[in-house]
Amino acid sequence: MSDDAALRVALICPYAWDDSGGVQVHVGELAERLRSRGHTVAVLAPVRGEHTPTGVCAVGRPLDIPYNASNAPIDPRPWAIRSVRDELQCFAPDVVHAHEPLAPSTSLWATLSSRAPVVGTFHSAASRSWLYDAAGPMLRRVARRLAIRIAVSEAAARFAARRIGGRFEIVPNGVDVSRFAHAAPAPLDGERKLLFVGRLDRRKGFPVAVEAFGRLAADRPDLHLVVAGDGPDRAAIGTLTPPVRDRVTMLGAVPNTDLPPIHAACDVFLGCAIGGESFGIVLVEALAAGVPVVASRIAGYSEVIRDGEDGLLVPPQDPAALAAATARVLDDLSLDHRLRDAGRRRASAFDWPVVTEAIEQRYRRAMVSPTPIRWER
Fold it and tell me: 375 lies in a domain?
């Protein structure tokens, strides 16, 4: 097979397609990039709503399962494997690309039932997972079906390798750099604005951002906080005094396609997750937009941000440190400019053309690799 031959690729997402999440964004944008390169792509995922989005095959209804201090909207019902198997047989892919291939949802069912080579991408880097640990022996058997194992970061590779062993190849998440680099600013209140993007749950550290903003806002009357996201921690802004709370703009959940103008309008990005992050797409998006990043020094994030070079890293769950580093950027124009320029250069390493080419190379290798173990049907 020539390197430019078109492929039939089934992309498998284990999470509810109509929920916000980094894996959903990654799979959706990868599908677009593969189609632009002439490949035929089918996306299989659970769907929560009544209407299936264009280009997606609905294979199950998600249940909300607490996981990694967040929510995993997956379909763990084993009879869903029939729908997945039927869709794969109808589509007849050359290669199946299962994201989180061992997650008890669409991805696991595809890994088990595929007749085509399976490439698995591991996105998670949870600090602990007793269920994953307990299922380790069985999951190691399933993992033998993977022709190639990709991890989005060294943190994700370490997490998976401790439980299933094997060799992982690092291919990071992709970001549409040009979409963020060239957006016009959204009309948002405030002369200077801090930006928080993500689910408002414990793992993302939204209360840390709120407290840091409160410290900074006391003597910066022009400073506002813009929040793109929703979740149980939205009430954290109640800890602010009413005048300061009035300078918080809560946008709710924002589709990824609508984020670039919001980034373009802001001055510093706060990436204050407390742990359990495998990569940090939100950080790369901010870098691509030329917004200086102040982020937690945690596994995953520290693979994206090189402290002092293209962003600043601070200890997690430390509002005082987050506020101090953010103040440095706000008050030092030369640092602001240096981080903006370095951030744009750093983002280019995660641009979709680079990432798509790397993934496509793995597809072609998988198709000529030794046949993985076949399971009885």
Answer: no
Nearest of 102, 109, 158 to residue 135 by alpha carbon: 102
For the entire predicted model, the pTM comes to 0.84
Do 213 and 273 share a domain, yes or no?
yes
CB 2 within 8 A of CB 20: no
The three state secondary structure string of 251-310 is: CECCCHHHHHHHHHCCCEEEECCCCCCCCCHHHHHHHHCCCCEEEECCCCHHHHCCECCC
Residue for token pair 């749950």: 201
Task: Return the CA Rg of the chain.
Answer: 21
Regarding whether 193 and 110 lie in a shared domain, the answer is no
Neighbours of 239 (CB within 10 A): 12
Beta-bridge mates of residue 45: 58
1 found inside a domain: no
- Alpha-carbon 328 to chain mean position: 28
The single residue listed with the structure tokens 């031959």 is: 5
**pLDDT tens digits for 76-121?**
888 889 999 999 999 999 999 999 999 889 999 999 999 999 999 9
